[in-house]
Task: structure prediction
Amino acid sequence: MSKLLSLIVEGADPRPEHLAKVLGVNKDEVERELSELHDSKTILGWIPILNPEKSESEKVRAVIEVKISPEREGGFDRMALRISKFEEVESCYLMSGGYDLLVFVSGKTLNQVATFISERLATIEGVLSTATHFLLRPYKEQNQMLVEDGFHEEKPSVSP
Result:
């Protein structure tokens, strides 16, 4: 992995002038390498990491374990690609263990996510079962801590 790519993966400021300064090279060199990384599809895009508690992002997220029946000639890939194309799906991974796919979905409401799972995902031919886990509070996202050390939500004292 190049030094530039390592910096980006570690979360450095992605602006070419900043990266050039850190690497001790000129900005044109960084822009050329960034262009090559985009052209080769090594870098697919930039996604900000938002703290949902501070960004006022009202979004319901769920993790779904999906057991599927592999297809002849396509194995798990065809089904995984089909599931990945749904707008609600943020990420989809082939995994080992009791389930075949790990799918992260999001929606505006709990009902919207539940409806997607029960009416669109679970009804696909070849989906054998699903197990849904709703995400309640994030603590760390993409190597970034979202909750500070010493954070304790104020709770009312319990009376005897």
Remarks:
- The helical segments are 3-9, 16-23, 27-39, 52-55, 77-84, 110-121.
- The CA atoms of residues 91 and 104 lie 5 Å apart.
- Residues 3-39 form one domain.
- The mean pLDDT is 88.
